[in-house]
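Before surveying the methods themselves, let us examine one representative protein, written as a sequence plus integers encoding its fold.
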Amino acid sequence: MRVPVLALIAAAAAFGQNGKQASPPVPDAGKQNVFSLDVTRVNLLFTVSDRKGRFISNLGREDFEILENKKPQEILEFTAETDLPLRLAILIDTSNSIRDRFHFIQEAATDFLTRVMRSGKDKALVMSFDTSAELVTGLTDDSTTLLKAIRDLRPGGGTALYDAIFTSCRDQLIKDQPRDKFRRAIIILSDGEDNQSHWTREQALEMAHKADSVVYTISTNISHVESDGDKVLKHFAEDTGGVAFFPFKVQDLAQSFENIANELRHQYNIFYRPNPLRTDGLYHPVEIRVKDKKEMVVRARHGYYAPTQP
């Protein structure tokens, strides 16, 4: 089946990556062109680990099963991906609440980009958020520009976390659509205590899904007491197949970044054709299981947004 999508959001219709259609952009005056996009397959990237968090990288197609709306699905293609091009959104909380840890956060973030970015292959963006979300630099493979963007940040103001997630996905990640496969990830450094956003938590999460982005969160709460903000960070990570990290000492931030870098390089990739194929624009839950191996943990997105019938 083929459905028309707007040319202005051609890059946003990322169904080929994880089966989700992007949220409509802000209406724009003028005429919009139309073209067709094949939306008959769902693509899922995921990781498998044991109960101790060690990656399992020797599994094959026959080891997995997929359920959509609790109905088994046929796997069309399976690969083990270890070297995917990356598209990263680094979202840094610049509110007053993290001022005392801000310098170390900057250093850990720049060190992460220096180690993980490969010139000519990977791209990243930097967005800060306090009273509002601000794109400091858009998607680029220029590491010098990215490092300078992080080092030039200064703390102050409230916390617009949800706006940062929503706009980084809608305006950046969702528009970058090379034909070859890549891994989109949002890395958030924050205490999770949003008090300034115009978009809601669920709207931000929906946009992350539609941009096919896994969310990794690093909490800046060092009180050793779980806060409401920590619960928010867990929610974003768990629902998108990511991980929430809680480094209670600022010195542990570097290890959190190291764990994220390792996970981004240990991926499995599965394609399947939904049966039945729906074009209702709704969210459809998906579960990936390792057959007969309950001790293994699969981290993947919990579902996808179907395309809409023209």
Summary: Residues 94 and 282 are 35 Å apart (CA to CA). Residues 102-116 form the longest helix (15 residues).
